[in-house]
Every structure is written in structure tokens, then in C-alpha cells.
Amino acid sequence: MSVNASNLHTISNQFAPQSLAECATVRSHADILDGAIALEREARAYGLRLMVWPDLATFASMLDADGDPVNIRVFGWAEEQIEAWQDIDDAARARLLRLCRTQTDFYAISRHEIGLPVGAFGIAARGRSDSLDGPFVDHAVIVPVLLQFGQIAAALVIAREPLRSGLIARAQWFATNAADAIRRFIAGYVELTQDQRYLPPDTVLSHREVECLGWIAHGKTDFEISVILGCSHAGVRYHLTRACTKLDANNRAQAVFRAGQLGLISPSFAGLENGSRLS
């Protein structure tokens, strides 16, 4: 069954949400369509529309239980507009999407300016952006969604009609009310559909193993790590070998990647903060 403006209200009345976030939560494949309809109905009330990408690494389309793209079936985008976003080379150069990899709060963008968030929606700084091609009108709001294992998703909130003023205020209210629902919708979809078999289910690394992987992630050699930690060269190799075994990794590069995905090491490595540093 296709979804359009004429039958959206009828379909939406088939379920009675207690809240937008609860209604948008995806627990089964059947919830994908219902959750998308709930978000579409809320966005429409603000004169806005959504575009949702569950994985910015691949731009794979979110599909409902019938295998139909949600961006087309529910959110009303044309197939050619969606295809324009699936050019990985172009997407990699789009500054508004690169910001998703470092921002946690939603932020406003326009064809000429990008605003970075302060608190809920404040604009802290402005600068010239890359030209924005694709389905943009004048302004948009981006809602980054940082998921488990390093996956990054995003929802784009865009005006239904060309507007040169007023959208930011509308989008602010919508994002304030709907950001949690959007995140629960995307996170539930990803958890339901992603393949997690490549990650070890329950990995516990020792403090020394974490230290060694952390220093490897910061570009140190085995010898340099042995000097930093005050242990033998062989000891460093032993800890790294043990970490690889626990993480089911074929080499230390894969071990560092998996440890980062699991949150066992992070960019704010404790070894650097504690003053253990090698020039």
C-alpha cells in the first residue's frame, strides 16, 4: 500500500501512540512503517519534511517490512532525489554531512551558511559552506544520530515549500520535540537490521591490554610503548597478542578498530592525560 497525503491520516489512525517517541520506536519490522508515518505526520504539521539515512558510510536506504524505501514511500521524495544522495564521492565532500561525524546535537544549515550548535539550538559560529546540491530549498536542520559500534546516521529536516525566513524557528520547535523520536526510530531500525556477528559479544580487556592498544592507536611502536609503560618489548607484544585473541582480530590494526567500536579505547586516551607521553 502506498502512502500519500490523501491516505496518511487514515493509516495513522490505525495505531494510538502515547507519545511521538513511543510511536516512532522500532521493535519489529512492522514498526518501521508506523514509526515513519508518525514522524511524517508530525513534520507535516510544522510544514516540514524528513529524509532519513541510517548509515552515512553507505547511504543504504531505510526499507520498511515490504522492502520499500521509507524516504520515498512515506516521506515523499522522488526516486531521482534519493539517488542523488547515494553518490558516495559527492556525499563525502558535503560539509553538512561531515559535521555529523563530530556533532552530537542538531544544527542548522543553509545554502550559504552553516551554524554550529550551542545547547539545544543556538548558533555559535558561521562560515561559508560547500555549495549544497540535491533536494535543499533554502535551509535545513540536520539531526546526527551516533549509534553503537561507530555507525553514524542522520535525519534531514527540510521545508515543504520554499522559504527564506521562518524555517529555522519552525525547525527549532520540531527538532526540540522530535529529536528523541528520530533517534529512537533510527536506532531501533539499525539494531533490528544490522549484522553484529563480526563483533565479539562480551570482551573484557585488562588495563595493560587497553593501554597497549591505546598507544598503538596513537601511532607508537612496540619499542616506544615499552619505554612509556616501563615494561619489556616482549611484554608489549604479549599484551597485544592477548588483546587480538580476545577481540577475535587477525592483527593489531583490526584489534584497535574493534576496541574503538566497543568503546574500550577512545580518542581521549587516559595515558595521554596522565602525563605518560613520549616526544
Overall description:
This protein is of the alpha+beta class and 279 residues long. It folds into 2 domains: 5-193, 2-Layer Sandwich (Beta-Lactamase); 207-273, Orthogonal Bundle (Arc Repressor Mutant, subunit A), CATH 1.10.10.10. The chain has 13 helices and 6 strands. It has helices at 5-12, 20-24, 29-45, 70-73, 79-85, 88-93, 95-98, 167-193, 207-217, 222-229, 233-246, 252-261, 270-273; strands at 48-53, 107-110, 113-118, 122-128, 139-146, 152-159. It has a 4-stranded antiparallel beta sheet with strand order 1-6-5-2. A two-stranded antiparallel ribbon has the order 3-4. The longest helix has 27 residues, at 167-193. The radius of gyration is 22 Å and the shape is elongated. The termini are far apart.
Number of domains: 2
Strand content: 5-15%
Residue-averaged pLDDT: 78
How far apart are the termini?
A: 64 Å
Sheet/helix structural class: alpha+beta
Fraction of residues in H or I helices = 40-55%
Q: Write the CATH architecture name of the largest domain.
A: 2-Layer Sandwich
Fold topology:
Layout: H1 5-12, H2 20-24, H3 29-45, E1 48-53, H4 70-73, H5 79-85, H6 88-93, H7 95-98, E2 107-110, E3 113-118, E4 122-128, E5 139-146, E6 152-159, H8 167-193, H9 207-217, H10 222-229, H11 233-246, H12 252-261, H13 270-273
Antiparallel strand pairs: 1-6, 2-5, 3-4, 5-6
